Amino acid sequence: xxxxxxxxxxxxxxxxxxxxxxxxxxxxxxxxxxxxxxxxxxxxxxxxxxxxxxxxxxxxxxxxxxxxxxxxxxxxxxxxxxxxxxxxxxxxxxxxxxxxxxxxxxxxxxxxxxxxxxxxxxxxxxxxxxxxxxxxxxxxxxxxxxxxxxxxxxxxxxxxxxxxxxxxxxxxxxxxxxxxxxxxxxxxxxxxxxxxxxxxxxxxxxxxxxxxxxxxxxxxxxxxxxxxxxxxxxxxxxxxxxxxxxxxxxxxxxxxxxxxxxxxxxxxxxxxxxxxxxxxxxxxxxxxxxxxxxxxxxxxxxxxxxxxxxxxxxxxxxxxx
Amino acid sequence: xxxxxxxxxxxxxxxxxxxxxxxxxxxxxxxxxxxxxxxxxxxxxxxxxxxxxxxxxxxxxxxxxxxxxxxxxxxxxxxxxxxxxxxxxxxxxxxxxxxxxxxxxxxxxxxxxxxxxxxxxxxxxxxxxxxxxxxxxxxxxxxxxxxxxxxxxxxxxxxxxxxxxxxxxxxxxxxxxxxxxxxxxxxxxxxxxxxxxxxxxxxxxxxxxxxxxxxxxxxxxxxxxxxxxxxxxxxxxxxxxxxxxxxxxxxxxxxxxxxxxxxxxxxxxxxxxxxxxxxxxxxxxxxxxxxxxxxxxxxxxxxxxxxxxxxxxxxxxxxxx
Lengths: 321, 321
Hints:
By secondary structure, the first copy, chain A, is mainly alpha-helical.
């Protein structure tokens, strides 16, 4: 699956989204322009904007509404990454210096706020109150997901269900909104809007599970962050939750959370997870959500957009970065 | 001027805004509810919501639109205060523990984002795209003002003009939007919309200048922060800019910014400012903006709302906290 043809019929139109994003950094204040350029540098997969454009391809494909919508979705995503960098003091993200490693914490917070403002302005350009409220509600769910994750840090007593709910807010809600928003502005019927919302949500869950698996097996250089970084930050994800399920008491994760500076517990947990079938179990669960996403599409007519959305589910499950 | 009758015809309706704000903290996640309750605790002056309601009193007073607008303005204000606490590590704000002193930095960032999301949802309830875009643009200007202030920290070579522009973004833009938004949703003519926008902007400038004066003379207990805190954080405000204008070279402010740990330079700067006519000069400038605000109202018909807006300019100039 090659990412440069993955987005099928909207591949070309994504350059308009890129232009909309690029224009944001043309500001009167050069240092801010540099910060925005760093945060918005091309090279990301632009998966969420592609989902918005593709979901707009089933009725009236209204590029003048879909481009600001898609750009607002990507900006909202990037703004939360910027704020995330404040949160976990991540040294690297996508293998590049984070906004936060180049600038003060305080400036990074305001940079994220500035990007939220632009995102809100872009989504308002759709002129669609329903989409605007969806956008606001998505930010609310994303922030709530992050707060819940923060509050649960270093707590070894969590369930897979709470994990799914958390990543539903933190990640899947924006995938869902990209698709639902695209469907709404193109004038899709409620059946189709609902189908694309479900597709996006399940795709988002599978995307995050794969992300969380890659944190255990990924290549540090390709991923741009150290292996096991979630556990180091006290965050339980699906693999470590499955490990805790199997050995609830004498478990290196529990030890690590109790003594967070003891690196040997991390190594032990990583080894136990890798030497078991936990990662393939987790991948199965990701596949199940990918299958749910594909099934949600069944109600939609066959078309290049639909085939691209189907291909994306495979890409998300097979990706290695 | 008593604050409990200051808002005249909208005094009662402010309780509806308070209810809208209170309802936000009824969330499924109790710890978040506690954080929101702390950030949104009653006792603030609720000046910005009052401005929105009063500005809606010149045409059709549509409470069902004005209450969500006013609540969204106050939430946006409070969210930026929450993010501000991350920024300057303020130990106290309004004499109460800040969100940040009770919770982790990361959680505080997300709490602010969560509040932005609610604010965006509330403003979308007006159903008015123009007001929504105004809201987004205001957040952009506020964040930009904070970024510029951050970038200029400990830089002694700034002008009064750049200060006025900075506080225009950071503070006056939201006052302006409260008034302009209220006028728009009540169906005011463009003349009146423009008058109320100008009123709000000039009132906001005078408000911030008074705030900055109080930082030099205020009572630490009443203000809830130490005297001279702006200078300590490397922020030039009108009084220190006037002092720099008078003695550009051999100046304790310049020394303080070069050696920020040397408390004696702060004391010297504070003494020089207090022993001169600088604070009364600064107060004159605040008065000028207050007068501009009042003049902007001249085009509006006499009414209880207009009289309340006039009274507010006096209150803002005379306040001691």
